[in-house]
Amino acid sequence: MLRSIIGLLIAFAFSCNANAGFITYTSISAGQNFFVPTNVTSVNVLTIGGGGGGANGHQGGGGAGFLSTGTFAVTPGNLIPIVVGVGGNGAFDAVNSNAIVGLTAGSASSFGSFLTALGGGVVTGVNQGGHNGSSGGGAACNGGSLGGNGGIGGNNGGACQSGSSMPIGSGQGNYAGLLTSFVDNVLSAGAGGAGGTGTHAGGGGAGGILINGAGAVAGNGAQSWSGKGGTGYGAGGGAGGLDVWINGTRYGGGNGANGLVYIEYISASVPEPATLALMGLGLAGLGFRQRKLAT
Fold first, then answer.
1. From residue 212, how far is each of 103, 182, 183, 187 by CA, in Å?
2. Max CA pair span of the chain
3. Which of the chain's ends, N or C, has fewer CB atoms near its CB within 10 Å?
4. Residues 6 or more apart from 164 whose CB is under 8 A from it?
5. Among 6-10, 130-134, 146-150, which stretch is predicted with the lowest mean pLDDT?
């Protein structure tokens, strides 16, 4: 009995100074570092790259930045470089042409050399589908409307909902289980953007990551009827679409959302003097009681 009580006192002394913490990096500024706090020897990290831009015309929506997670041993006092991936640029308008100009993929996010997540993909030629990423971009319609919705939670993008569909963008697979290891905040998948309308509808951008229900939003295609950008850090931009009843312009796509580096840690601190004194008094009291019972 006495040993059990002593064990509880010791556990209390060490646990009462444990310091849970988290830090979120969303700025794309250069030169960022994570300073490992005192007594922190392990961190849980999520990275998602910047979302791909949306194509112009009847092409697919941008893929969301790829997502990576991991738990890593670290050394207190070390500086670990942080890079937040930049969302890709949406393509420009193209008048009476299928040329794709100005479209860029998202760039990678990284936590030092420990963890990297690539940016969301973009089309590299005419008549390609939604773009690949952690979730896939929605497919465009090669004649028809509505365009495919952007993927969510690691899923593929949707196909054209009415008409001839371009290929869909591929996701990396359902990642819901990866998010459950983070406990200080609620991490969840953001919604994919809705596919556009028009005679040749553009696809919607893929959804990224939300923290407590909030996050970045990727850009929509250039027109009110264009494909919409996905929601969340690393979301893909919506594609512009084409409506031949208006004109022959292949309207521009939206920009992808910037990525994210998210870190959680627990500092198992050694007991402070006041805590040790309190534990000592408790142990002394138990010892006195034990001697009294013995007599």
1. 31, 12, 11, 6
2. 102
3. C
4. 141, 142, 143, 144
5. 6-10
At residue 295, does pLDDT exceed 60? no
* pLDDT, mean of residues 275-279: 45
Q: Are 256 and 235 in contact (CB under 8 A)?
A: yes
Q: Amino acid identity, residue 224?
A: S
The first and second tokens of residue 81, run together, are 């470089």
AA letter at 30: A
Query: Residue 55 and residue 52: Cα distance in Å, rounded?
Result: 9
**Residue 283 is which amino acid?**
L
Inter-residue contact 61 to 230 (CB < 8 Å): yes
Tell me the whole-structure pTM to 2 decimals: 0.86
Structure tokens at 227: 């494909």
d(CA 236, CA 213): 18
Tokens standing for residue 281: 């008094």
